[in-house]
Write a structure and sequence with these properties.
By secondary structure, the chain is mostly helical. The chain has 10 helices and 4 strands. A two-stranded antiparallel sheet has the order 1-2. Strands 3-4 form a two-stranded antiparallel ribbon. Strand 3 and strand 4 form a beta hairpin. It is globular, with a radius of gyration of 23 Å.
Length: 251
C-alpha cells in the first residue's frame, strides 16, 4: 500500500512526517513544565533528585541541571539548598505565566504584520484596568516597590541602558498589583517582548515628563483612587503613543 496521500484535485502528495528535533535539555524542560502546568506536579511537590531524573530521562546529570535552571528562571520551580533541600514546584505567578505567553507573542510580533499602533492599543486595553485594580488592591509593600522604582528612574539619565528595564518593571509591577495573574502575565509578555521604550527618541524633556506621569500614577494608586489611576495611566500611554508616532514619522 502506498504511503502517499491523495489531495482534493486527485494528485498525490507526500505526508509531512518531519518534526522539530529538540535537544535533550529542551525535551526534559518541556516534559517537566508540562507536568507542572497539567497538575501532575503540584505546588510544593519535591521533584526527584537529579540522579533519579537523569535515570528516568536517560540523560546526563548536567542536562538535568540545565533544564532545572531554566525552569527556575521561569518561576516554575525553586531550588532549596541543604540536606533537606532539592527542587520544589513553585506557585505559578504572573512571571511564570508571562514567560509562557511571551514565547507565543514572540512569533506573532516577528511576523512583520504587527505595527506599533497595534501594540500601543493592546497596552491601553491591558494597562488601564491594571492600574484601576492596582489602586483597589495595593498593599504597603506594593507601594514601597513602586517608590523604589521611581527612585531608580529619578537617579538615571535617559541614555542609561537600565531605563528600558526600569520602565518595564514599573508597568509589570502595577499589573502584578492588579491581583489578576492572567492580566499581569499579558502585560509582562508584552513589555518583555516589544520593549515599548525602544520605539522612543529619548530626550531629557521626555524623561522628565514620563517620570512626572509615573509619579501621578503612583499617587493615584497610593490614594486608592481607581478613577485617578485610570486618568493618569491613560494620559501617560497617550503621551507615549504620540511621541512614538512622531519619532517613526521622522525616520
Amino acid at each position: 500500500m502506498s504511503n502517499s496521500i491523495a489531495s482534493e484535485n486527485g494528485q498525490t502528495r507526500s505526508p509531512i512526517l518531519g518534526r522539530k528535533v529538540l535537544r535533550p535539555r529542551q525535551q526534559v524542560e518541556d516534559a517537566l513544565r508540562k507536568a507542572v502546568l497539567d497538575g501532575q506536579l503540584r505546588t510544593g511537590d519535591r521533584l526527584p533528585s537529579e540522579t533519579e531524573l537523569a535515570r528516568q530521562f536517560s540523560v546526563s546529570r548536567p542536562t538535568i541541571r540545565e533544564a532545572l535552571s531554566a525552569l527556575e528562571s521561569q518561576g516554575l520551580i525553586r531550588k532549596v539548598p541543604g540536606a533537606g533541600g532539592g527542587s520544589f514546584v513553585q506557585a505559578v505567578d504572573h512571571t511564570a505565566l508571562g514567560e509562557l505567553v511571551q514565547e507565543s507573542m514572540h512569533n506573532l510580533l516577528r511576523l512583520g504584520g504587527v505595527d506599533i499602533d497595534e501594540i500601543a492599543m493592546v497596552r491601553q486595553y491591558l494597562e488601564v484596568p491594571s492600574a484601576k485594580l492596582a489602586a483597589q488592591n495595593r498593599t504597603e509593600q506594593d507601594l514601597e516597590d513602586l517608590h523604589v522604582l521611581l527612585t531608580e528612574q529619578k537617579n538615571r539619565t535617559v541614555d542609561d541602558p537600565m531605563i528600558a528595564e526600569l520602565d518595564a518593571q514599573f508597568h509589570i509591577t502595577i499589573a502584578r498589583m492588579s491581583g489578576n495573574r492572567i492580566l499581569a502575565s499579558l502585560v509582562y509578555a508584552l513589555h518583555r517582548e516589544s520593549e515599548p521604550v525602544g520605539y522612543l527618541d529619548l530626550s531629557p524633556d521626555l524623561g522628565r515628563d514620563t517620570f512626572a506621569q509615573h509619579q501621578r500614577i503612583v499617587k493615584a494608586i497610593a490614594d486608592q483612587d481607581p478613577d485617578a489611576a485610570e486618568h493618569a495611566i491613560t494620559e501617560h500611554l497617550a503621551y507615549l503613543r504620540a511621541h512614538i508616532r512622531n519619532h517613526l514619522a521622522q525616520l
